[in-house]
Amino acid sequence: MQIVSTTESSSPADAPEDGSVQAVYPPSPEFVAQANAGPELYEHADADRLKFWATQARRLDWDTDFDQVLDWPDAPFAKWFVGGKLNVAANCVDRHVAAGKGDRVAIHWVGEPGDSRDITYSQLLDEVSRAANYFTSIGLEAGDRVAIYMPMVPEAIVTMLSCARLGLTHSVVFAGFSATALRSRVDDAQAKLVVTTDGQFRREKPAPLKAAVDEALGTGDDAAESVEHVLVVRRTNHDPDMNWVEGRDVWWDDTVAESSPKHEYEAFDSEHPLFLLYTSGTTGKPKGIVHTSGGYLTQTSYTFHYVFDHKEGRDVFWCGADIGWVTGHSYLVYGPLSNGATEIIYEGTPNSPNEHRHFEVIEKYGVTTYYIAPTLIRTFMKWGRTIPDSHDLSSLRLLGSVGEPINPEAWRWYRDVIGHNRCPIVDTWWQTETGSAMISPLPGVTATKPGSAMAPLPGISANIVDDDGNKVAPGEQGYLVLDQPWPSMLRGIWGDDERFKDTYWSRFAEQGWYFAGDGARYDEDGALWVLGRIDDVMNVSGHRISTAEVESALVGHHAVAEAAVIGATDATTGQGIVAFVILREGIDTDHETLISEMKSHVSVDISPIAKPREINIVPELPKTRSGKIMRRLLRDVAEGNELGDTSTLVDPTVFEAIRSQRS
Ligand code: 6R9
Description:
Its EC number is 6.2.1.1. This protein has 663 residues and is an alpha/beta fold. It is built from 19 helices and 30 strands.
């Protein structure tokens, strides 16, 4: 596949003169000249994949070298870097201090109410050591599980690293989840310790958090029996009614902060479990995705270096995800810190106290590398370009996108308004299960197409196949599969090997491929386009149409800020396309005219078969707390069904607004 282009420039001169939009964006010669990655990275990986991964693994410090790169006869249960021993936390902290980089800032922490802290690698080492000493003092041992239910405070990262240091397996539960969700995760993992805060700031107001832990852990007969201790970080200092269970609850200030900052680490087996991260499946019970040490750290570290073109000591990296999601694990904690990066950790939402917040942070800290989700880009679009335009964003040199397909309009807006047509964009496809980025351009190498994740990274092998496992022709939709194991792959579902095999490996069992659950297609140049979850692919009169494609077309209409599309059951066509759209600020054309304009826009942009049957103009879309649109619920609305489970929604009241628009 020809995806490499090194010499052409990506100046405005490349823009077609007939007014149509630019289709391909080659890297600029200036970026190419300084890029970490070159085309030879693909060549090395293609020549000998396992040797390539061994080279990447040696970016880390191993206390005992590995003697086998991959052990796969027991597929789908993989072992990577067999025989090797390392300490993940020492790779993220100690080794940078030992190399004389202790005074470098690891974390510029920005609190929601405006407070801030800068934490150097030396200070991080002290903090991690203190927590490790305290955890040892209460009897925790390698292999025990620790639940972390915290907002984005530095102690959350310190706790994750202290667990890694001791071989404790952490399970971070997003602090926006309910007490019920926390309880089911604590029980499933049989966590002995829960680390939390007294409260958290949300839109400038303190809200209790420890209270949810108390509710989750219960009392008497209903008490979560595995939990021995609850460790509480003081954050808001504002919960006059806070409950305190003597003998179970302790303050961080009285315990960790009083412990010794000296701690000798021990090395653990490459396959020692590092963390569990729960993700929702098709059935009600969340799956505890298991990740281990050596392979996970190898691939997060490698991808951080090459995909984000990280320059040690110069770059300031900012990933906008929460530590409650895999993106936060891999690109707020393990990827950046294993590379000795300086990064931003921001506690709040993008519009507190106002919509300028992110751009002020970029300006103040000189952020060079900015990695966010398309939903936030579209929100910025909705707020309007005058907001970013009023800030100096000249420090930025690379932009990233993750979490969902990015529509070309949002991609171009991101590149133009945030990146000033200077910064390459890396659209990174991956999942909780894959652990690190898998399909993405390499900046300085790949000529990118807006909306395409382009190609598997060096060392990764993917394919798009039909029902029988045959590679699809360009333009045809198929299943995205990973046909070779990769170092940061999930090692299983906690306590449920059968579900692991069944969920990911049964669709193409004969071939032994991992089925990711996403649909994708190649274009005529071989670039790979991820179309979204397979259950988001509609079937209208026998034609397969991706919700993402229709959404992308709708967002291409000048009046539309954001769109969600679902396939609703239709007696004649199988499914009918129903769209929900949010308008941009300042659109005052009447809705009837707009709706008919939008329908013909989609018809022209994709094909008449993709023309929505129904378009609803709504004030909000139902989103999960990680920013994914809950199409399942929109389908219920469109089909007039009882609403399914709304517990993971940010704002369950959006439905009243949506329903009132439809009636
Ligand atoms: C990292 C993360 C995984 C699902 C995945 C896919 C969607 C993520 C994407 C993307 C298109 C991208 N997804 N990145 N789709 N282009 N660049 O988001 O993990 O929360 O487990 O979600 O997200 O559908 O299967 P996770």
